[in-house]
Amino acid sequence: MTSKRPNSAAVVAEADDLLIEILARLPVKPLLKFKCVSKRWLSLISNPQLSFSHSQFHRGLKPSPTAILINDFYYSTPDFRIIPLDPSATQKVELSLDFLNFPRISILQSCNGLLLLSSSFLVSPSEMFLPDYGRSVHRSSSVVTEDDRGIAYLLCNPTTRQFKKLSFPSPLKEKMRIPYPLLNYQHRVVFVCFAFDPKRSPYYKIIVMIKLNKSFVEIYIYSSETDTWTSRTTDVTDLCMDIEFSPIGFHNGFYCNGAIHWYRKVGHPSAVYFDLDNEIFKKMALPPELDVWYFGESDGHLYVIGGLVDLFLPLDYVVLEMAADYSEWFVRYHINLQSMREESSELSWKVCEVLSIICAKDEKESVVVVLVDGVVMSYKVSDGTSKRIFDLEWKSLFVACTQDHTNPYQYVETIHCF
Questions:
Q1: Is residue 210 located within the same domain as residue 190?
Q2: Start and end of every F-box domain (predicted)?
C-alpha cells in the first residue's frame, strides 16, 4: 500500500520560512488583509523578519510615496492634511490617526512609512488650573502619575494602525521634564528623531539630543534591536548652531543613508548631519550663491532645490544631488516654472514653496511638488508638464507657511509592526 504524498500547498502552509518568502512578494494592503486568515498568519505577518524580507524584495520595485502630510495647526481635527500625490489613482489614500488616544498630535518626522509624533502637554483630568496656553495643554486620562504629565512621543505606523509610546530612561526623562505651568521656559530638548531603514534592518533607533551648555550636548540613542539606551557627551562648538539660546535648525530632521540631516534657514544657512554608525556630527557644505528652497531626500538621495539669491520669487530652479560620499553637489535637473505659471494665471503666485521631490522608478515620472497660493501642483522634471493635485484652504495654508514646524512629510506604506 503506497503512502499518500502531501500536496504542495500543504507543504508551503506548514513551512514558515517558505511562507514568509511568498507573503513578502505581496503588496502591502492585500498582505495586511491576510492577518485575518489565522492566528499563525497574524503572527507571521507581524514578525519583523517578514517586514525585512518584504522590504528587500520590493527594494528593486522602488515604491514611491503615495501622499504628503502637513501638520495642521488651524483645525482641531484632523491634526494633519493629506495631499494625495495621484488623485486619479483607483485606490485612494486612506490615512487616519483616530486610533491614537492622544490630543493635538503633531508630526515630527516621517521615515520609510513610520511617523514620529508628539502630543500637546498632557495633564491629569482632575487638574484644577489650566493656564491660558490655548490648545497646547490638554487633560488626558493617560496621565495617572506625575511621570505621565508632559509631552508624549509616539512612534506610529498609520498603515497597520499600530503605535508605541516612547519610554525614556530615568536620567533622560528628568532632563526632558517641563516645569508646569511654566511651559514657555527654555527647553533643554534640542531634538527627538528616529531612524528606520527596512532595506538595511528591521529595527529602528531613537535619538534624543539634550543641551548642556553652549558647547556641549548629550546624545541618547535607543536601539530596538537590543532594547537598550546609550548616551554620550559631544562637543558641538564647531557646528555653530546656537543651541544655547535657540535650537533653530534642529527641527524637522530627516533620515537618509545612515544619518539624520538638518538644514538651518535662520541666519547663515548651514547643514549638519549625525552619522548613526559612528555617532558623530558632521558639517555639510551647501552650494554657494543658491537660495535654498528645499532640503530633503528621495529614494535614499539628498537633494537641494533653489534659485539665485537675488530673486524674490524665482521661476528658474536647479535641483542638486549630493554625492554618496558627501564630497560634492552635482546638478541633477534644471526646472522652470514659467509654463506652470502661465497655465495657472488665475493664481497670484504671491506664495510659492517647494514641498518635495519624488524620484520615481522610471526617471521620466519623477516630479517636484510645488505649493502656489494654496494649490498643490506637480511638475514633471522630464518634460516640464504640470498638473494640479490638491487644493488647500487659505487659512490652513497661511498657518502652514508661517510655522517652522510644518514641513511636508512623505508617506509610504510599510507592514512594520511594533
A1: yes
A2: 16-54
User: What DSSP element (H or E) covers 39?
Assistant: helix 39-45
Rounded to the nearest 5 degrees, what angle is found at the Cα of 347, between the Cα atoms of 343 and 349? 100
3-state secondary structure of 80: strand
Task: For residue range 121-180, list pLDDT tens digits in order.
Answer: 777 777 766 655 555 777 777 776 777 777 889 999 998 888 999 999 999 988 887 766
Geometric angle at alpha carbon 250, from 215 and 328, rounded to 5°: 95
Claim to verify: residue 217 and residue 315 sit in the same structural domain? no
Task: Answer whether 204's CB lies under 8 Å from 224's CB.
Answer: yes
Are 99 and 218 within one domain? yes
pLDDT digits over 227-268, tens only? 999 999 988 877 765 555 444 467 678 999 999 999 877 666
Do residues 83 and 177 share a domain? yes
Q: Supply the pTM of this predicted model.
A: 0.86
Q: pLDDT tens-digit profile of 202-211?
A: 899 999 998 8
Owning domain of residue 256: 63-122+146-284+404-417
Number of domains observed in the structure of the chain: 3
Residue 136 lies in a domain: no
Within this chain, do residues 228 and 336 fall inside the same structural domain, yes or no? no
Residue 233, amino acid: T
- Does residue 137 form part of some domain? no
For the sheet with 280-284, list strands across it: 254-256, 259-264, 270-275, 280-284
C-alpha cell at 366: 519623477
pLDDT in tens, 360-383: 878 888 999 998 888 999 999 989
Which H, E and C letters describe 279-332, residue by residue?
Answer: CEEEEECCCCCCEEEEEEEECCEEEEEEECCCCCCCCEEEEEEECCCCCCEEEE
* Grid cell locating 187: 527647553
Q: Which amino acid is at 359?
A: C
Residue 138 lies in a domain: no
- Beta-bridge partner residues of 214: none
CA atoms 193, 29, 80, 392: torsion sign: positive
pLDDT of residue 57 exceeding 80, the answer is no
Tell whether 114 and 237 lie within a shared domain: yes
> Do 394 and 410 belong together in one domain?
no
Matching residue, cell 533620515: 255
pLDDT, the chain, mean: 80
Q: Tell me, yes or no, whether 266 lies in a domain.
A: yes
